[in-house]
Amino acid sequence: MRVQKGYQKNFCRRFLSGMAFLFLFFLMGTGISHAEGRWEQEGQNWYYYSSDNKESYTGWVQSSTDGRWYFCLNSKMQTGWVSWNGKWYFLNSDGAMAEKQYVGNFYLGEDGAALISAETPDQRKTSENGSLLRKGKPMQELNEKTAKYISVLMEHPDAKAFFDSPNQLSLEEGNGYPFVIFKKMSLYDRKSGELLYAGDAAFHKNAVIEYNNGSEKKMISVMDLMMIRGVAGERVFIDPAGYITYVAGGVE
What is residue 29's DSSP assignment? Predict the structure, then answer.
């Protein structure tokens, strides 16, 4: 979730120059759009505020200078995979939306959205979850039981998570693509505390988890979970196939 150091000066110069911004979508859940705003850097992160009162903004922001698109969640500029209006997008390490390129086993079209059940420019087929097909089957695919959490996270992207039973962790071999199954993950509604899902979680083998044991904060790998009793996460990020790529705000 960091902005590259070399990019920060250019980013500041482009976005804090007082020029107006265009928006692709309405403010989530309100139907109100904003014509302009400002970016502020706080620590290692960039935030977009739509008014002097630091009104929280969720949605897309377009640079008026180079036309690149950026996505903010609760005002914070995002990186990695994000889901919006039923489509999947990938944001580079500098926050800019990727387009017309491969990201792992997925191809992003001209509008930046992952191609679903389609053909890529180099004539490769994609599956119903966007993953490339290999021998007629998706390279990345969860079983019917595990895949249930995908719809839960798309409906409740801010769900809180708890990862328990660390001794039950195994490396699996998919259709030519290795991943890690972890038992178990529980997802809770942030406001009501209602249990939304309890079951297996599928991690990318190189997934990263923020970890804070009270005295220090660090980034750990999914395999490191074997040494921890349990971790509570503030937010879980997945790719279009449902594989967990990042867990933010993990606390023991």
Answer: T
In tens, the pLDDT along 192-210 reads 999 999 999 999 989 999 8
The Cα 211–Cα 166 span in angstroms is 14
Q: Report yes or no: 235 and 249 within 8 Å, Cβ to Cβ.
A: yes
Residue 225 and residue 161: Cα distance in Å, rounded? 14
Between the two ends of the chain, the Cα-to-Cα distance in Å is 21
Distance CA 142, CA 11 (A): 38
The pLDDT of residue 118 is 96
Q: Which two tokens stand for residue 141?
A: 């695919």
Closest C-alpha to 106, from 74, 145, 139: 139
Q: Tell me the C-alpha distance between 37 and 55, whole Å.
A: 10
Instruction: Quote the Cα angle for 178-244-250, to 5°.
Output: 125
Domain with CATH 2.10.270.10 in the chain: 38-138
- The CATH H-level superfamily of 38-138 is Cholin Binding (2.10.270.10)
pTM recorded for the entire structure: 0.76
Q: Please state, in angstroms and rounded to a whole number, the distance separating the CA atoms of residues 146 and 1.
A: 26
Q: Answer for the pair 127, 119: CB distance below 8 angstroms, yes or no.
A: no
Nearest to residue 204, comparing CAs of 246, 232, 168, 167?
A: 246
pLDDT band at 127 (very low <50, low <70, confident <90, very high): very high
DSSP state of 37: -
H-run or E-run covering 151: helix 148-155
